[in-house]
């Protein structure tokens, strides 16, 4: 066993202590601003795992054996940072700490196990690429996970913007307010079908009085919503169709066939009451 391997074994054996030193000395302000003390123990174990990978790479004289493991570790770390609400800039400030804690421990061990300049360079050529690669994977995973969380939040907001409310055992209403773009129209179709199946209503009042304009794509989506509801046995009553929207729909060529259209919500409810539907 050469001196590099002796140092590498030392890094692996001391991985938890090195992670603890990293968290409690170099990254203390960042770590304790984000976590409770009991959570730091888990972080010590998690970071110790990566330090072990660095030790294994140094011992083998190659990073190939730990490349995939380090990549997966970094990916999970990036996703966890997003889940905890840690900013990417904050997380990346810890990058230098990996090198500092590792090379400081190696420097201290040199009193017992001497290394030549070539040995140090050889270790650096193996260890540094693993740290750099992990940093890249961490950043990519962070950005991807962050974008997914934003999209999920936006989708949730859109779902709340198309509320289907039961008025009676047989009648529900879907009041729409604000701009009705392509994405919201898509969510409208999904939510309307799901909620009508859940509520088991036979009639859905679709009130458009709060919608300022409908374009070709949205009009087509509305037509598909009505057709889809018809397939599950739900009749659609359209209300609040403003003159400019009605004209635009006619110009587009969309025909809402087999559907009741009423001037306003009051008229729709009165008709449903007269037919004993409400």
Automatic annotation (TrEMBL):
Superkingdom of origin: Bacteria
All copies of domain STAS, residue ranges: 161-272
This protein's record includes keyword Phosphoprotein: yes
Name this polypeptide is given: Anti-anti-sigma factor
Record-linked Pfam families: RsbRD_N, STAS
Organism, scientific name: Jeotgalibacillus proteolyticus
Keyword Glycosyltransferase: no
Keywords: Phosphoprotein
SUPFAM superfamilies xref list: SpoIIaa-like
